[in-house]
Write a structure and sequence with these properties.
This is DUF2220 family protein. It comes from Endozoicomonas euniceicola. The protein is an alpha/beta fold. The chain is 40% helix and 14% strand. The chain is built from 18 helices and eleven strands. It has a six-stranded mixed beta sheet with strand order 5-4-7-6-8-9. α7 runs parallel beside α10 and α10 packs across α12.
Length: 397
């Protein structure tokens, strides 16, 4: 026998799934809406008639015949061997949308959705599919919907604005609003703009994804590098990623990449080379630097799970990448200087861009085959080792 709580839960389902709003947008109707429920069996009537009678009274008290709105309760007469004819609830039906919305407490939400639908049809019809696909998300953002439309219309008129978000002059919309609602704006703008007005290859919000997708400026990562074969007055520089062009004053054939800042600052002189340092996982940003594809890339990182993870990421962008001092021999010679890698920060996934020896060492570290959470930080490697590793007549000066 259905309780009022169970009845409301069942009645709310067309709303909570978004099905009612989708049908309403399509011009369809779910009314009259019947709510299925289990009816008392003959055995229950016999054994607990008082409980059944109270249940019937409860349904009746909350029906439209008593409250003036809500569900209509229909009855059916049944013949019972011991109790004779009994009039039992047979159907619970919501005749109209207003009766149903009032019962589930969603009249105001539907009114908002109706207003949003009208506003969107008039001002931004291209995003109407979003209302059908995600109606509950629309209601979630009901108070902000007019501003979301204003932002989308701005981009329709001025695609690829090539400005910082702070510079967008949209009436009634401030910088904080766009920063706070990038996720839903990305979905709406994808519908509102022409295909040529955004970069569909950029997905997600990470690494300034919203700005890159819709042609906005952003605070780019700084690339710090040193020229290792230069007699000029400036050899240590930091530039935004988009300005990281190949130096013209030096013939660069080899590019070293190292995680540690002090190792970058003290990296030995190497003929026709530069060293990039201090990026960590930010090395992924280098994939957009096309001129690096034609260079010899050598990566030097920590001998730990994250060091090999970063090496794999670099090699994913630049398959020609070689590793430096990230081998078993280097680890063996410095085991007395090793520390423990933090358990919560270890990388335990799969890496697909390692050589056979690198992969074997990474697996040994991941599985703690040589010691628990073994880690050799690159700054603990003796300076003479890097000198020796680079001591090639054709590379050093």
């Amino acid at each position: 026998m259905i309780t009022q709580k169970e009845l409301k839960k069942k009645a709310t389902r067309p709303w909570s799934t978004g099905g009612f709003l989708r049908q309403w947008l399509a011009g369809e109707t779910v009314f009259p809406l019947e709510i299925p429920f289990s009816k008392p069996s003959g055995r229950i009537l016999t054994s607990d008639f008082g409980k059944v009678r109270d249940w019937i009274a409860m349904l009746q008290r909350h029906s439209s015949s008593v409250k003036g709105s809500g569900y209509r309760l229909e009855y059916k007469t049944v013949n019972h061997k011991q109790l004779g004819q009994q009039r039992l609830p047979d159907r619970i039906v919501f005749e109209s949308r207003d009766d149903w919305l009032g019962f589930i407490g969603c009249k105001d939400a539907f009114r908002q959705f109706d207003e949003i639908t009208g506003l969107t049809k008039r001002q931004l019809p291209d995003v109407m599919p979003f209302l059908s696909d995600k109606p509950l998300k629309v209601i979630e953002h009901a108070d902000n919907w007019p501003n979301l439309i204003r932002v989308c219309r701005y981009f329709q008129i001025r695609p690829h604005p090539d400005r910082y978000i702070r510079q967008l002059d949209i009436q009634g919309v401030d910088t904080k609003f766009i920063e706070s609602y990038k996720s839903i704006l990305s979905e709406l703008l994808t519908l509102a703009l022409e295909d040529d007005d955004f970069d569909d290859s950029v997905t997600g919000l990470a690494e300034n994804g919203f700005e890159r997708r819709f042609g906005l400026r952003f605070d780019e990562p700084l690339i710090r590098f040193r020229l290792l074969d230069s007699q000029g007055p400036v050899t240590d520089m930091s530039v935004p990623l988009s300005q990281f062009v190949e130096p013209t004053e030096q013939n660069i054939s080899t590019v070293y990449i190292t995680e540690n800042k002090i190792n970058g600052l003290t990296f030995p002189n190497v003929k026709d080379a530069m060293v990039i340092f201090g990026l960590g996982y930010g090395v992924r940003s280098l994939k957009s630097v096309e001129w690096l594809q034609g260079k010899k890339i050598i990566y030097w990182g920590d001998i730990d799970t994250h060091g090999f993870s970063i090496l794999s990421a670099v090699r994913h962008s630049f398959p020609q990448t070689e590793s430096l001092l990230m081998d078993q021999a280097t680890l063996d010679q410095h085991k007395h200087l090793c520390v423990q890698e933090s358990e919560s920060k270890r990388f335990t996934g799969q890496l697909n861009n390692l050589t056979v020896p690198e992969s074997a060492l990474f697996t040994a570290l991941k599985n703690n085959e040589q010691a628990d959470n073994l880690r050799l930080e690159q700054e603990r490697v003796g300076y003479s080792f890097i000198i020796q590793a680079l001591k090639q007549p054709e590379h050093t000066i």
